[in-house]
Amino acid sequence: MREAFYRFRWGSSAAALAQTQFLREGALAPKCDSRPSSRSDTKAVLGAAALPLVSVVMPAYNAESFIARALASVLAQTYSRFEVLVIDDGSSDRTAHIVRSFAEQDARVRLLQQSNAGVAAARNLGIQSASGEFIAPIDSDDLWHPEAMAKIVSQFLSVGPKVGVVYAWSVDIDERDQQTGGFHAASVAGNVYKTLICHNFLGNASSTLIRKASLDHVGGYDHQLRAQNAQGCEDWDLYLRLAEHYEYSVVPEFLVSYRKVSGSLSGDFRQMARSQLRMLEAVQQKHPHLPGFLYRLSRSSFYLYLAHQCDASGHVRATLYWLRQAIKVDPITPFVRLGVHILFARSVACWLSKKGFLPKRGMAVLLPSSLTRNRPCQELASIPSEPEINRFATWLKVFVGRVLHRSLS
User: Fold this and answer.
1) pTM score, two decimals?
2) Residue 340 has pLDDT above 60, yes or no
3) Which of 114, 232, 291, 398 has the least C-beta neighbours within 10 A?
4) Cα(261)–Cα(141) distance, integer angstroms
5) Phi and psi angles of residue 108, each rounded to the nearest 5 degrees, phi first
6) What's the CA angle centered on 227, arms 226 and 233, to 5 degrees?
């Protein structure tokens, strides 16, 4: 079983699925034996002790479906000096049982429990309980490449003390661990505050390593957004507060699988829109000298992101709604984006097809296959099992992000 961990392949769930099945059959997670068996092993242990301790913080709420896979990917890391703090946020399923099974066999895993208080409060509890020099957040349904921690820590050790955050690239996966075609890639580094206002180029909460002293300085995650019914942008809000005081660095490699699950918090788009608006209002009050177009561009870009998420879920009316909101906030920028026109044309075509105004098979004639790939609309195309990341699309996203960053610097 230990060998299966180290065969954990990027974009694949073989080892994680095996681990999940192992747990369901009543067995325990593989035991970690840290006792050196030889002089060379002793040297390896002493060498590892000189490395900084990383505290992995994993909030979990009713996460029994995916948490074994997430923990398997963490324990498969080639970087060995870390602890794993799983914060059970009042789950009513087998989440705590699964985590205890791992903790009984690996002393690095620790279970913390609290009454349901939200993901921000859970992460803060994990940070407060952490012993590491660095904090590595990961959601309970995401996956890490086996070398993710080693490469990000190495990058952190190569930069100066001004850097508070190092991030890596990520790809989107579905409930079956299959890549959906979505991804997050950027080469933005240094002083990223203005660029980060415009858009969250980091993409998600599982792709960063943060200096704990920096988190203590800015105060951690804002748990009050939950009380305002405005959850969803806690990570972005934290990244902005960190960017006010610290520089960012990047590992330009796809090291994280970010899971998009239907019915999760990321699916409550109106709440996410409120969360982003609250965040931007707080930034604007703190920095009234910054130009207003930054906030308009940020809201418009975020609404376009929500439109794309609705499109990926097959919700045509919701897609058109968020497109209208994006244009309402910023009547100019959306029209210069080719993706907006493609998204609008596809959504209208889907709507007309569902209403019977267009034949279902006629859509393949209206839209090129390259534009309909990986769409849930059954009339368009089926989702391939293992789509590859388009190199040109990656280069284009990185290039556009770099141009934006330099224009704002």
Assistant:
1) 0.78
2) yes
3) 291
4) 9
5) -75, -20
6) 30
